[in-house]
Amino acid sequence: MAGTAAAGGRPPRVSMQEHMAIDVSPGPIRPIRLISHYFPHFYPLTEPTLHPPDQRPAAASTIRSAPQPQPDPEPERDSDDSTALATLEFTLLFDADNSALHCTAHRAKGLKPLASGSVDTYVKANLLPGNSKASQLRTRTIRGTRVPVWEETLTYHGFTRQDAVCKTLRLCVCEDPWLRRRRRAPPLGELQVPLRKLVPNRARSFNIYLEKRRLAKRPKSLDTARGMSLYEEEVETEVAWEEHGCVLLSLCYSSQRGGLLVGVLRCVHLAPMDANGYSDPFVCLFLHPNAGKKSKFKTSVRRKTLNPEFNEEFFYSGPREELAQKTLLVSVWDYDLGTADDFIGGVQLGSHASGERLRHWLECLGHSDHRLELWHPLDSKPVQLSN
Q: What DSSP state is assigned to residue 142?
């Protein structure tokens, strides 16, 4: 057979047993020939090389007998059969004295990147329920590793005891946005922690397995095309929540200047009023009844934010007894160029108020030169003041 193949230049004929790679001869087991020996690869740009038949068994035997070098296993490679997601280590602290929630993201282990193969990750946090953009915070991006270490603290200001009872913190480990395609990629994993389990002023550490993004069923009202999935990934924007935000105000009666100092420090979790999902907020102050020529003040405008920081202070002159009979109206607005500004929320302080608003007002006027800061939730409707 070998002589015929060499003389005619044609490949040898293959018997049925050889074609099926089965050796039916008795005796010790010999290496089975590879099918690729009989069907060599075709490369358009190069001439195929046909090995003589008498050299193929020796070559195959040599290859199989020689020890094969084992590649160094990659420590960060994960098996396709594994279904467990990564773990996230973080610490939560509810600072009740300063009305703040601190979330420190430490590290993640065992991350599995998506099809893009990205290993550039960050942690995104949201308070639920509530507006997603208003409560969204994120860490910096750690690049080039599946075991990222952030050691970064995210702080939610204006977090009260009532928020701790009814809200949940969601943490997502996400790919860096600049590596994503046009369609937003789902996070690598997420988890949710009910905040009612936190003890005020006591830090608690967590090491929890991440979960996959939950699938939500499409509403029946949506007309979906044939072949479209009945389930879709949970969207980033949460269901509308009856929450218009909070404002942090400082009050101080100055005995030296003979008047009231009102500080507008910051606002958090404001309702979005613009089409981009944000607002351009500013704060107005009005002391009723009219306290002279300067009874109205307005802060500067903060562009495209739902958590503005102002740190501006205003002064109302007048004796303490006279100010005690007045009402301070604080309102937050969304600035619109060329059209009327949109009302976001407001709060009323004074003798006609109640609860924390009344306590804030009375303690301020009752203690001179003592600055008192307090968070106040915003009402959805403007207060109607009588003349």
A: B
The DSSP bridge pattern shows strands 281-288 and 327-334 to be antiparallel
Burial category of 207 from C-beta neighbours within 10 Å (exposed 0-12, middle 13-18, buried 19 and up): exposed
Question: Residue 198 is encoded by which pair of tokens?
Answer: 């936190």
Interval 184-201: pLDDT, tens: 667 889 999 999 989 999
Enumerate the H helices of the chain as residue ranges.
2-8, 16-19, 35-38, 56-65, 161-166, 320-323, 356-366
Scanning the structure block, which residue is given the tokens 């590596």? 179
Q: What share of the chain is helix, strand, coil (3-state, %, to 5)?
A: 15, 35, 50
Report the predicted TM-score, pTM, of the whole model to 2 decimal places.
Answer: 0.67
Q: How confident is the model at residue 108 (pLDDT cuts 50, 70, 90)?
A: very high
Beta-carbon contacts of residue 35 (< 8 Å; ≥ 6 apart): 21
What is the rounded distance in angstroms from the CA atom of residue 295 to the CA atom of residue 317?
A: 10
